Amino acid sequence: MRINPFPRPGTPVSIGLALAALLLAGCGQPPAASGTATAVGGAAAAAAMPAQAAAPAAAGTGNLAGRSGTLNNPDNATMVFLYYDLAGIPPPVGQWVEADQRVRYAPGADKAARRAAVRAEFEAGLAAVRGIGALQLTVQANLSSYDPTYGEFTVGALSPGAVYTFKAQDQTVNLKFDNALAAQSWSVPKDQAQAIVDRIGNDSLLLDASVHIRKVLPGPGGGTVVAHVDSWRLRDSRSGNTVARVDTIRD
Amino acid sequence: MHTTQLAGLLLIVGLLCACGADKPGATTAAGVGRAAASAVASPSGDASAEEVAAAARGDVDCPADAAPHAPGTPVDDIVGVRPGMSYEQAANAVMCSGPLLVVKPENGRGFEINTFGQTLRQGFSARFAEPRVHKSGRQIVQEMQRDAMARGMNAVRQDMQPGQSKWFVATMGMPGQEKAISVAREQWFDQDRNPTVDSVEQALLAKYGAFTERNDQGDTHQLRWAYDPRGRLITETSPLFNQCHGAADPDSGVSLSPDCGLVVAAHVVPLRGNPALAQYLQVGVVDQAGGYQALTDARQGLLAMDAERRAQQVRDAGKNAQAPQL
User: Fold this and answer.
1) Chain B residues within 8 A of A190 when measuring between CB atoms
2) CB contact under 8 A, A2 and B255
3) What phi and psi, each to the nearest 5 degrees, are found at residue B157?
4) What pTM, to 2 d.p., does this model score?
């Protein structure tokens, strides 16, 4: 993501463009794979379950310590629920329920029952993210060409500029990595690089990344979840064969 | 010209002069801008460029204190001015580079970020002071007519004269803590003392080292030194080779990307009459990842500051708020 903030004096400058650039700066790169769907309702949120059993947060919300649960490729609504849980911000469930189209457009006689059902979905979705502290993400790897100068490939999906955006319930949650600089580099000796290039060919690669959440930065209309990349695996999108695996990433 | 037209033109000139004046207190740099504001606010008679500069510059501490360049890291300064300097340090160092240089806050350039009512200094420019000459209405009108005719003839009018230089330094940070994120300077060589293009390029290579790319655009010789955020020189085999660009022109915008580190860009522009001689040189340095982080941090800090303000107001409202009368 690039932003170009300093216009030439005397030339016509669109403030709108500058604002758009700033907004884009917040959004970063579009999600490469998961988390790209448009906002979904409560039903989908309730269906998104943690990959591992999520232990209830003993210390309540807003506490990053003691979170052992993992989400596998969370959808937009789940990430928004998780953001509220991480930030310790009470989710405006009442507003979400009233804004839900199934409630808004329900016949008067059905509204109360529909309201209760939708509320239950939201609350189930919120309950499902309690104690979540780690994520498993599968995205397009966006692997660079081999750079013989420094003997490495670069995993674009993990670059410092990579920001994954999740939108639901009029909230935008961004996911960034605090060790992106280290995580994006895949060092390969020159004598092995060509074999890897030959093996990859023209196939697209998927990246399976394990990250744990380190920080949450609240903001208006959403916020940013900052995670640490612990390990990743590159695999061929067609055959599923593993191309590379990095288990330990230094800070 | 009719009297009414003349009066209208004078009115416009007066309004433009008023717009061009610095607002007192618009800058908080130590010794920077305050003198300029007072000088502009109360000009008294004609003054030479030196007198205007002396009045506008205030206290300048020269030579500027500059941290020595750390060995093994990219050279990141232009005449001692580098990203990471505080606003005040950078302004002082810029003025130390020329006795006629006057710094002016550039609040019209920068990022469109929500400052929640706070004043954020997003940069400053510096140019040579001009002599202050009071002109009659007739002189002003004659100048405007001459300018209009020049525009109509598509005449090239440079805003710099030989021997002059101008700067733009972009800054970012919380109010009062802004730091430079990019620096750009344009230097016009003295008339009849123009160096050769080759010698200018050699001087650039001697200072900034091996370059990432050399790319001549027309007559302009362009050089780029780009580094990744780890401080490694980007070469043509790097995936960042086509991503990380700088801005040599002080009037240009800069790009900020967390994927790029320091980028130095230089343009050597030759004389029209002799392309072997350099007319002027533009050099720009930007710390892209650092600038991006500074911008992100400032946005988050301003947001937190405003959240605290609102929370405090709510707390205050609990103590002394007026109850509704129902």
Assistant:
1) none
2) yes
3) -125, 110
4) 0.77
